[in-house]
Write a structure and sequence with these properties.
single chain; about 425 residues; mainly beta; 10-stranded mixed β-sheet; 7-stranded antiparallel β-sheet; about 35% strand
Length: about 425
């Protein structure tokens, strides 16, 4: 009987002890503090815009030491997350952008895209690498990377990563300006020359690829260390976003990540493609209708385009048509054309037209019905820059027609006369 009582007492003791212990344990653990970085400009410091800082670079090839207590601030728009950018941060503000040279890898772990930072510029140097202005330290007498140990003394985060500045849309090559260097830019309806090839050729450390934009081409630099190096370049036309750079006066583009290349659609079948390396009237089946004036379409063999101008000592009234050979669109549900052209002087938007007909038989010009087409990109008339027309869509009634003609209609007056130059035409 005593043995049973002792066991009961021990059980009561253990139960009471467990209750006491459980009463001492909190149901909720204290959460660790969450610190949001915040930076306040020190007293006596001066905040400069990025463009004002870059203006302190006295000459290409020179190093400019910063001795006064100045800061810049900007949002990170490029880092090394994909591996295509090496030991650098690109930041930009409302005035421009600059590349920060840092002797540190995996920078993206600390300085993410969208992070606002302040940079203490005192004791840093401004320099340039083949005309690309950079901020960093000194290496072998030139611009170099800021040592890893010094980075926390010069870079200060402010708040959490937020919205990334919208990339600046560039429509034609001539719109690129030095002020855009080291900032985000965007190109729509562009294509790669090397479509179907990897971004980096096998065995290369870096491979240049070529992006065709309206009015020119842009070199796209790709590193074998990027996580998209072996991926294939898309075909067709789409959108490319990147950081504009410059190398010895030539603009280049640095890709941040593969997702900045999107919207590419494989090109439709080409029904007709003619580049005017020879006279299209003499050798390619094109014809003309010269209705008003003595001027006419003519081939420039030196520059490889066909042209017309209503200027002959003075502006002259003209109406002249350049008409394509017959195009079979029987299997085309959504036909369109594109072409490369330039125009200077006059009023291109009103004097230069693109027409189409499906009942012109080669001789009934006056009786045929001609439809005016909408051209997305017309030259301004300010210079001789060649641009892409963009996708010129034919009306739905042209679908599946077997006898379509495209015509370039030129007009001029005694008060206004453009010069129009066309390098070639594609029909999709």
């Amino acid at each position: 009987m005593k043995k049973i009582s002792t066991i009961k007492m021990m059980m009561v003791f253990i139960l009471g002890l467990s209750i006491a212990i459980s009463g001492c344990v909190k149901d909720d653990f204290d959460k660790p503090p969450f610190n949001i970085p915040e930076f306040t400009l020190p007293a006596g410091a001066q905040l400069l815009s990025i463009m004002d800082l870059k203006s302190r670079h006295t000459a290409m090839g020179q190093l400019d030491s910063i001795t006064d207590n100045i800061y810049i601030t900007g949002v990170v728009v490029g880092n090394d997350e994909s591996g295509n950018i090496y030991k650098s941060l690109m930041i930009q503000d409302l005035t421009g952008g600059i590349e920060l040279k840092l002797n540190k890898t995996s920078i993206f772990n600390e300085y993410k895209v969208g992070q606002r930072i302040y940079v203490k510029c005192k004791n840093l140097v401004l320099g340039d690498y083949n005309q690309l202005i950079q901020l960093g330290g000194v290496y072998n007498g030139g611009i170099g990377q800021l040592p890893d140990i010094a980075i926390p003394k010069h870079l200060f985060k402010d708040s959490l990563p937020g919205v990334v500045p919208a990339p600046r849309k560039v429509f034609v090559y001539s719109e690129l300006l030095p002020d855009f260097v080291s900032t985000l830019v965007r190109f729509d309806s562009v294509e790669f020359v090397e479509a179907g090839q990897p971004y980096v050729a096998l065995g290369d450390d870096n491979t240049n690829r070529t992006l065709k934009i309206s009015g020119g081409t842009l070199t796209v630099r790709n590193s074998k260390y990027s996580n998209f190096a072996t991926q294939l370049i898309p075909s067709g036309k789409g959108t490319v976003i990147g950081i504009l750079s410059v190398y010895n006066g030539t603009y280049q583009l640095a890709l941040r990540q593969q997702s900045d290349i999107f919207g590419f659609v494989a090109p439709p079948p080409v029904l007709l493609e003619q580049v005017f390396t020879t006279d299209p009237i003499a050798t390619m089946g094109w014809t003309t209708q010269d209705l008003i004036g003595a001027q006419a379409w003519s081939f420039d063999a030196a520059n490889l385009y066909i042209k017309i101008s209503g200027f002959s000592g003075s502006n002259v009234e003209n109406e002249d048509w350049l008409i394509s050979p017959s195009i079979n669109m029987t299997n085309s549900n959504s036909p369109s054309i594109s072409f490369t052209h330039a125009a200077k002087f006059g009023a291109p938007a009103t004097e230069l037209k693109v027409m189409a007909s499906f009942d012109f038989d080669g001789s009934n010009f006056a009786q045929a019905i001609w439809y005016e087409l909408s051209v997305p990109n017309m030259p301004s008339g300010a210079d001789w820059t060649f641009i892409e027309s963009g996708n010129v869509v034919l009306p739905a009634l042209f679908a599946n027609q077997d006898n379509v003609h495209i015509a370039f209609k030129y007009t001029s007056t005694t008060s206004s006369a453009s010069t129009w130059e066309i390098k070639g035409v594609k029909v999709y």
